TrEMBL record:
Keyword Zinc belongs to the record: no
EC number: 5.2.1.8
Organism from which the protein derives: Marivirga salinarum
InterPro entries named among the record's database cross-references: OMP_Chaperone_SurA (IPR050280), PPIase_dom_sf (IPR046357), PPIase_PpiC (IPR000297), Trigger_fact/SurA_dom_sf (IPR027304)
Keywords attached to this entry: Isomerase, Rotamase, Signal
Gene Ontology molecular function, alphabetical: peptidyl-prolyl cis-trans isomerase activity
Name recorded for this polypeptide: Peptidylprolyl isomerase
N-terminal signal peptide: 1-26
Residue span, PpiC domain: 178-278, 281-376
Keyword Isomerase: yes
Length: 449
């Protein structure tokens, strides 16, 4: 089977929309006698891996045709080649980012299934056990994504290339876009009283003293740190370059000597004590213990009052929503885009309703276009409380792709095509650099030809 741009683009898209619950469910249902069907350097592909991936591929409505299993196996080989080459080229992801991604996946599962208790009942294991079981898979997915970004780094498309790409699509094959909305938020996180902050700092100082007196930092982190994943990592977050961590965290870490432990430091994520493990060039390696802030109802009420006043200013045209979001919102993910949620692939502010957080979707479902909610209390991804107002600016009905209405989406599709061509070329050039062998059963797939 020839390795085509279509195949690798399918792989590229499939990887980006992979959902753990679907894979975990498929794994529980597929029954097969396992054997190794492919090796890529030190990485192996099992018969069960192919069965699960093929089932997942079909569940998304893909029509693979007579060579379907070969196409899926080809994608699995590409996955392993990405990992093998990442190892050769020293492409890694920090463990702290793996933990954060794992926590995001868990939150997605909680939203889909209903509660942590239901997840534990469904899979027959505790949430912590489930995290340990899938952590390596999440890390590998992130490394594959990082390797893809490394391969396609710097690729761009010009407006003329976008127009040409659009013009080459047969009119009867233009994609049909579902309902899109333009929705923004302004978030205000509660602030703690000085007394509450002092209590957390005193707690961290107590833990610091225990470590200074000889107790193991990692053991203390596993017991007391509220960072997701601390039980597995002992608070170690790996190497980061300057500018990648919270400014207060980084400034404190870089003032330390290796082995030295900081006094409590406050960041947007909570309160930390930090140990500098090592520095090499522009990178530094640390571990930390994190205590999350706890807010009283009085703290939350202050945020409600603040956003209520901002809402009044917007409604009375004293300030635009976009300017208010840029100046006052505590959500870094949306404040830089004028408060608006960004479409995951194209990067525009018109987002499919399917991509919206369920809480946002059900909120705007009762709103009129152009309206702003009163302040709403909600839980952030780290489970802490915050307050927000939601602005429902615009709605675009389902329609055939139009380059004027959907320029960002079409631009991204053109860029994806360019990336797929680069990835296909990379595969052809790289497959000879690693050891790849297929079971005789799949020789006819001609993946390596």
């Amino acid at each position: 089977m020839k390795f085509t741009n279509h195949n690798i683009l399918s792989f590229f898209i499939a990887l980006s929309i992979l959902l753990l619950p679907l894979c975990a469910n498929a794994q529980s249902e597929v029954k097969t006698v396992d054997k190794i069907i492919a090796k890529v350097d030190n990485y192996i592909i099992l018969e069960s891996d192919l069965a699960i991936a093929y089932k997942d591929y079909l569940s998304r409505g893909s029509n693979t045709g007579p060579n379907g299993r070969c196409e899926v196996l080809e994608n699995l080989v590409v996955n392993k080649l990405l990992l093998a080459k990442a190892e050769i080229d020293s492409v890694t992801v920090p463990e702290a980012q793996v933990d954060a991604q794992l926590e995001n996946r868990m939150q997605m599962m909680v939203q889909q299934i209903g509660s942590e208790e239901k997840i534990e009942e469904y899979y027959g294991k505790s949430l912590d056990e489930f995290k340990v079981e899938i952590r390596d898979d999440v890390r590998e997915q992130m490394i594959m994504g990082e390797m893809q970004r490394t391969i396609t780094k710097g690729l761009e498309v010009t407006p003329n290339q976008v127009q040409k790409f659009f013009d080459n699509i047969p009119k009867d094959s233009l994609p049909f876009y579902s309902t899109q909305v333009q929705v923004g938020q302004i978030v205000k996180k509660p602030t703690m009283s000085k007394e509450a902050k002092d209590n957390i700092k005193a707690r961290l100082n107590g833990l610091r003293e225990r470590i200074m007196e000889g107790e193991n930092f990692e053991d203390i982190a596993r017991l007391y740190s509220q960072e997701p994943g601390a039980k597995q990592t002992g608070g170690n977050i790996g190497y980061f370059e300057r500018g990648q961590l919270a400014p207060e965290y980084e400034a404190t870490a870089l003032r330390l000597k290796p082995g030295e432990i900081s006094k409590p430091v406050e960041t947007d994520f909570g309160f930390h004590i930090i140990e500098l493990i090592n520095r090499r060039g522009n990178e530094f390696n640390t571990r930390h213990i994190l205590i999350l802030p706890k807010f009283t109802q009085k703290d939350v009420n202050k945020s409600i009052q603040f956003l209520d006043s901002i809402r009044s200013l917007i409604i009375n045209d004293s300030i635009s929503f976009e300017k208010a979001a840029a100046e006052y919102s505590d959500d870094m993910n949306t404040s830089s885009s004028g408060g608006y949620f960004i479409e995951s692939e194209a990067g525009g502010t018109k987002i499919s309703v399917d991509e919206l957080d369920p809480n946002i979707f059900f909120t705007i479902d009762t709103m009129e276009v152009g309206s702003i909610t009163k302040p709403l209390v909600f839980r952030q991804q780290d489970r802490s409380e915050a307050v927000r107002i939601i602005y429902y600016k615009d709605k675009v009905r389902p329609h055939r792709a139009d380059i004027r209405k959907d320029y960002q989406k079409i631009k991204q599709a053109a860029l994806n095509k360019k990336k797929s061509e680069k990835l296909a070329k990379w595969f052809q050039e790289s497959k000879s650099e690693v050891f790849i062998v297929l079971d005789d059963q799949y020789k006819d797939c001609q993946i390596l030809n």
